[in-house]
């Protein structure tokens, strides 16, 4: 006969997980390469032992693991296609063209405002806040310092823009991870996030615009010109390349399912690469005299593996490197490991036992969302990893949100509004430590100016307490001051 777990028994696997993850951050350079996945599996093993001692049959635990993994398979397939999409869009010149023309909007009179916008454009195009900060971000920081702006403020603007893309870009792993944990699809998640993300970014831009007008902007933008020159010399940056994202976004707006939409984007990227970038096709393939063969080799390589484009500027080369489907395998591995851990924790009611006191305290939707936000920040602080801050709370709260009649995108948005963007504000988190090292600005120095990251979790809580655009399973959205709870 199955016994009910005590609160300590339910918390023990998570305590072990936090300890293991903390050790991983201090020992391994790249915790996503396997260390965090093994930590999740070890914690799952401990949870299995506790579940069996509570009287649960192993076969039932195994079946729950399998069903939980099955629920994540659509997201895993999307992740693999995202890897291929990033590869063909880089190869075709779509991403370089977005960066090239995005840099054109830089105006010294509105530098901080522009730094946010440019970082946003690049991070949306690449799906990576880290590569954005390490490349364009470093260049923007140098320009800002040269014209006399406090480097902490410039770093805050760069981080704000970079994490906007990390949060909303379909190429971002966290943007795929959050809906996978909550049980919704990628594009529903992105569209729903805009309700809180657009106001947050608008406020952020206004703040930087106001700050910017207090400075006397003068100086050279030579670093940006060097980046543009390197891209222009390497790629054909024709505006016609924008047809690729335009077609994909049109398909998305028409609500075509994610898998065929992304597959179309991958194919368009490959076709445009063959048409617009013949020199790069030949160079990457290493084949001369047979353009058809070179095209096949290069496009296939961009879809599944590593492709690096070399330019005259070494700082640009990192931005123009992709890893195709292969680059997504660590994230896929993380999702599978998280699903194992979540499946075991759910099988014996361990997650439910943990969340019962929280749910009891969270009397309404606002309290539930606030509790989720706090839990995400807690895991960002203790586990020091933004992925864990999405994965574990996502599994913990998924059932409660469902029981409260809330659609899964409400949970996925909350995870992104808090788990993704706050990681870079914590000095010992992998995000905060990395960006501080790359920019040469201490985390606690730029954190007060990373307005997008600071406002996002507050905006999520505000929308929940005011019952603005809260989607329920009956397909109705609450309106302000609604009494429905």
Uncertain segments are 477-485
* Proportion of helical residues: over 70%
The shape is globular
Query: pLDDT average, as an integer?
Result: 85
Largest sheet: 2 strands, antiparallel
How much of the sequence lies in strands comes to: under 5%
Strand order of the largest sheet: 1-2
How many domains, as an integer? 2
Total strands: the figure is 2
Rg over CA atoms: 23 Å
How are helices and strands ordered from N to C? Answer: HHHHHHHHHHHHHHEHEHHHHHHHH
Question: How widely separated are the two ends?
Answer: 36 Å
Structural class: mainly alpha
Please count the helical segments: 23
How would you characterize the overall build of this protein?
With about 475 residues, the chain is an all-alpha fold. It has 2 domains: about 5-70 and about 330-465, no CATH class; about 75-325, no CATH class. The protein is about 70% helix and about 0% strand. The chain has helices at about 5-25, 35-55, 60-90, 95-100, 110-125, 130-145, 150-170, 175-180, 185-210, 220-235, 245-255, 260-275, 280-285, 290-305, 315, 330-345, 350-360, 365-380, 385-405, 410-420, 430-440, 445, 450-465, and strands spanning about 305-310, 320. The chain has a two-stranded antiparallel ribbon. Helix 1 (about 5-25) crosses helix 17, helix 3 packs parallel to helix 12 (about 260-275) and helix 6 (about 130-145) runs parallel beside helix 21. It starts with 6 loop residues before the first helix and ends in a 20-residue tail after the last helix. Mean pLDDT is about 85; it is low at about 475-485.
């Amino acid at each position: 006969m199955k016994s009910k777990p005590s609160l300590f028994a339910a918390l023990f696997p998570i305590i072990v997980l936090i300890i293991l993850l903390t050790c991983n951050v201090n020992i391994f350079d790249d915790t996503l390469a396997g260390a965090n996945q093994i930590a999740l599996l070890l914690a799952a093993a401990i949870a299995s032992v506790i579940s069996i001692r509570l009287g649960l049959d192993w076969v039932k635990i195994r079946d729950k693991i399998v069903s939980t993994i099955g629920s994540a398979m659509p997201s895993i397939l999307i992740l693999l296609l995202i890897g291929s999409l990033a590869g063909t869009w880089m190869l075709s010149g779509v991403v370089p063209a977005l960066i090239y023309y995005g840099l054109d909007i830089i105006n010294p009179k509105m530098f901080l405002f522009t730094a946010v916008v440019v970082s946003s454009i690049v991070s949306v195009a690449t799906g990576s806040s880290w590569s954005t900060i390490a490349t364009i971000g470093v260049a923007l920081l140098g320009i800002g310092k040269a014209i006399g702006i406090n480097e902490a403020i410039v770093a805050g603007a760069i981080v704000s823009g970079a994490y906007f893309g990390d949060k909303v870009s379909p190429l971002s792993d966290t943007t795929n991870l959050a809906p996978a944990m909550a049980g919704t699809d990628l594009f529903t998640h992105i569209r729903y996030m805009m309700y809180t993300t657009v106001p947050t970014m608008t406020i952020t831009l206004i703040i930087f615009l106001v700050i910017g007008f207090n400075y006397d902007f003068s100086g050279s933008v030579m670093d940006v010109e060097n980046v543009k020159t390197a891209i222009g010399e390497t790629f054909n940056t024709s505006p016609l390349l924008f047809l690729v994202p335009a077609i994909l976004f049109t398909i998305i707006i028409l609500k075509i399912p994610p898998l065929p939409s992304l597959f179309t984007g991958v194919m368009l990227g490959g076709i445009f690469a063959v048409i617009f970038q013949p020199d790069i096709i030949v160079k990457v393939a290493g084949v001369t005299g047979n353009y058809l063969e070179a095209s096949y080799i290069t496009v296939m390589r961009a879809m599944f593996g590593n492709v690096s484009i070399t330019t005259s500027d070494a700082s640009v080369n990192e931005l123009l490197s992709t890893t195709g489907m292969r680059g997504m395998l660590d994230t896929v591995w993380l999702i599978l490991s998280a699903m194992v851990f979540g499946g075991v924790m759910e099988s014996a009611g361990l997650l439910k036992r943990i969340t019962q006191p929280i749910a009891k305290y969270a009397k309404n939707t606002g309290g539930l969302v606030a509790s989720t936000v706090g839990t995400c920040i807690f895991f960002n602080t203790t586990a020091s990893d933004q992925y864990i801050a999405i994965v574990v709370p996502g599994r913990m709260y998924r059932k409660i949100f469902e029981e409260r009649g809330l659609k899964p995108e409400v949970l996925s948005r909350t995870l992104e509004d808090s788990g993704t963007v706050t990681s870079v504000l914590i000095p010992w988190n992998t995000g905060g430590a990395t960006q501080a090292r790359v920019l040469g600005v201490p985390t606690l120095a730029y954190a007060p100016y990373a307005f997008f990251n600071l406002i996002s979790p507050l905006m999520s809580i505000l929308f929940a307490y005011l019952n603005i655009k809260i989607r329920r399973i009956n397909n109705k959205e609450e309106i302000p001051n609604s009494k429905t709870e």
